[in-house]
Fold this protein.
Amino acid sequence: MIVTTTENLPDHQVAEVLGQCFGVVVRSRGLGGNIVAGLRSIIGGEIKEYTSLVEDTRRHAIDRMVSNARLMGADAVMMMRFDSGSLGQTMNEVVAYGTAVRLARSAEAGR
């Protein structure tokens, strides 16, 4: 599955637009992680516990978006974006979304 943040993909043309696809994940760090992160915030600098949480959540959201696109019959997701926010004080929401499409090889690609 091709996932791109761009509107155009070299050597390909969009044969069919299937519609919006998305993957949503809401996660919470456990109590121990929140305590360690809270202590790190006093010292300053990167809070690795939360960086890891956000990175894992984004990857999971992309995986869900790709699964959704496959169910729609897509072979690519164009114009992929993320949106995120907080729910309460300990939860993080991440949405990966884009346009599910079927691609065709450009006639110029074989030249």
User: Anything to note?
Assistant: The longest helix spans residues 48-71. Strands lie at 2-3, 12-28, 76-87, 91-105. The chain has a mean pLDDT of 85.
